[in-house]
Amino acid sequence: MAAKFRVLSRSAAAVLSAGQKPWGGPARDGEDEKMTVLEGLLAGIVSDPQEETRWLVLADWLEEFDDPRRAELLRLHRRLLSTCCEPKQHPQRSVWQTRIVALIAEGVRPCVPQETLVLPGGAEMTFSFIPPGTFLMGSDHKRANADEKPVHRVTLTKGFFLGIHPVTQTQWKAVTGSNPSHFPGDNRPVEQVSWDDCQEFCKTLTAHLEGRGTVGLPSEAEWEYACRAGTTTKYCTGDGAAALKKAGWYEGNSESQTHPVGELAANAWGLHDMHGNVWEWCQDGYGAYEGSDQIDPQIQTNENKRIQRGGGGCYPPGHCRAACRGGFEPSGRDGYFGCRVCFRLD
Predict the structure, then answer these.
(1) Among candidate residues 229, 241, 239, the one with its CA nearest the CA of residue 73
(2) What is the pLDDT of residue 302?
(3) pLDDT tier for residue 276 given thresholds of 50, 70 and 90
(4) CA separation for the pair 279, 332 (Å, rounded)
(5) Residue 229's Cα: distance from chain center in Å?
């Protein structure tokens, strides 16, 4: 493949509120100054994401110079994240979550650091920064599947960038030169891809980055942490079918097909399609949870089955829950088997 891949840092561009268009034409000096400040605030968060003051300063800046609703969304999200391991001790969490969902439904975009890779042909692949943190993994609901138990505390000590939506057919074709999908559409998620296919995709993309970072599948713990975004409900938008319809394509609204990515609500990290549309491969092999609290859990190595998460467009709501786990042969392909990839700055 002769075309080069490029890393395009557009963290500020991706999070500007409506009306701010620094690449849409000549920018005024004031807009340039705002961009510089915002880029600096976001870069500082990536370099030191566990320093809470950096997030609070960003919220203050958004309130004064951007959209106060984005500041509100950010502050509420930080509260959700800081209380997600003791949800029963913070009954106001449901109010915070409801407000976040409402803000996003109004078109308020989460303000998070982002990176974009430019693929051959000009296609772009954008990633949101997921900071380190601790969450409750699994489900102890009476109807939860046995492999989702027990609920255990997981701490991830390193941040990572995760694709804002599943890999699309345009993106897959830009890297591999082919499109195996059953449901054709440039902006639909690629499917009919196996775990093995995804390994080759990530390997090819990483090689062309020439040392500027690595691309790979997320671990199962990283996937669930990113999906939940501080929530402890079945879906990032709440519980029940009405909540799922806001964020995911499933048997109740998909008409038995995949849909273009990014059409439904994102979560508070700006991630779309974490529920439904296509199952997403994770790096882990399928296995039972150990049950104890874990820090940076090791990738499970079952070579006969690999983990998939998120559910698919023809599946019932239960399969699209944040805690639901699937295990499939690494060579398996299906019209609802897709992927979402991580970008790590090395």
Answers:
(1) 229
(2) 81
(3) very high
(4) 12
(5) 9
Ramachandran angles phi, psi of 11, nearest 5°: -55, -45
2-25 confidence digits (pLDDT tens)? 455 666 554 543 444 443 333 333
**Residue 115 clears pLDDT 50, i.e. is over it:** yes
Band the pLDDT of 126: cuts 50, 70, 90: very high
Cα distances from 329 to residues 22, 61, 194, 286, in angstroms, run: 46, 48, 8, 10
User: How far apart, in Å, do the first and last CA atoms of the chain sit?
Assistant: 23
Cα(152)–Cα(300) distance, integer angstroms = 16
Strand partners, 118: 6, 124
In this prediction, residue 25 carries a pLDDT of 37
CB 174 within 8 A of CB 120: yes
Considering only the top CATH level, what class is 119-344?
A: alpha beta
Instruction: Quote the distance between the C-alpha of residue 100 and its chain's center.
Output: 16
Longest dimension (CA), the chain: 58
| Domain ranges for the chain | 6-105, 119-344
The pair of three-digit structure tokens given for residue 86, joined into one six-digit string: 């003791």
pLDDT digits (tens, 9 = 90+) for 324-342: 999 999 999 999 999 999 9
Do 243 and 233 form a contact (C-beta atoms < 8 A)? yes
What's the pLDDT score for residue 30? 65
Rounded to 10 degrees, what is the CA torsion of 13, 78, 264, 329?
A: 100
Q: Are 165 and 273 in contact (CB under 8 A)?
A: yes
Q: 65-96: string of b/e by CB count within 10 Å (b at 16+)?
A: ebbebbbbbbbbbbbbbebbbebeeeeebeeb
DSSP lists the bridge partners of residue 308 as 281, 326
Angle between helix 68-83 and 93-105 (nearest 10): 140
The mean pLDDT value for 303-309 works out to 94
* Residue located via tokens 């998909």: 254
Average pLDDT of the segment spanning 84-104: 98
Give bridge partners of residue 155 from the DSSP assignment. 134, 295
Tokens 């999908």 sit on residue: 181
Q: Are 191 and 183 in contact (CB under 8 A)?
A: yes
